[in-house]
Design brief:
The protein is α+β, with helices and mostly antiparallel strands. The chain is 33% helix and 35% strand. The protein has a seven-stranded antiparallel sheet with strand order 1-2-3-7-6-5-4, covered by helices on one side. Strand 5 and strand 6 form a beta hairpin. The radius of gyration is 28 Å and the shape is elongated. The termini are far apart.
């Protein structure tokens, strides 16, 4: 009888240890999955047809442009905010490339990649101080689709 009680006590103790171990492993795995699934940034969107707060509206050179989308990515850990806006213009791609090339140079941007005015899709990449700017152009037949994104550090 005494042997059975000791065996039963050891079994209960072992079972409790196994359950505690499983709970600990589940907590570790759950914590890892939660941590690894978190986005490294937050996103802020604007109402349809408007630019997101923090986007420099002066970057939209065509006053007749139609805003399609605008949002800002905030990378808190790197202390970088990246607003972006997509719009269409009835102006042809060749004119948009020329207008933005002149704008960048006149406003002190250092152009690292020059857009090709004869391409169907092209882009400018420029920097000024702690800002980096990417302007992408796409010929859409009746005009040009433009995506402007810049990072502010």
């Amino acid at each position: 009888m005494i042997g059975q009680k000791e065996h039963l006590e050891k079994s209960k103790s072992t079972l409790v240890k196994i359950i505690i171990g499983l709970v600990a492993v589940a907590a570790i795995v759950g914590g890892y999955l939660l941590y690894s699934s978190r986005m490294p940034y937050s996103i802020k969107t604007s109402p349809e047809g408007e630019v997101v707060a923090g986007f420099d509206r002066a970057l939209i050179l065509d006053p007749q442009a139609r805003i399609l989308d605008s949002y800002a990515l905030d990378y808190r850990a790197q202390k970088v905010n990246q607003p972006a806006t997509t719009f269409t213009s009835r102006r042809p791609l060749i004119q948009m490339v020329a207008d933005y090339g002149a704008y960048l140079r006149e406003n002190g941007w250092m152009v690292a990649h020059e857009a090709d005015p004869l391409a169907m899709n092209t882009f400018y990449y420029a920097s000024k101080g702690a800002q980096e700017l990417n302007i992408t152009f796409e010929n859409i037949g009746f005009g040009t689709k433009v995506i402007i994104a810049y990072a502010q550090k």
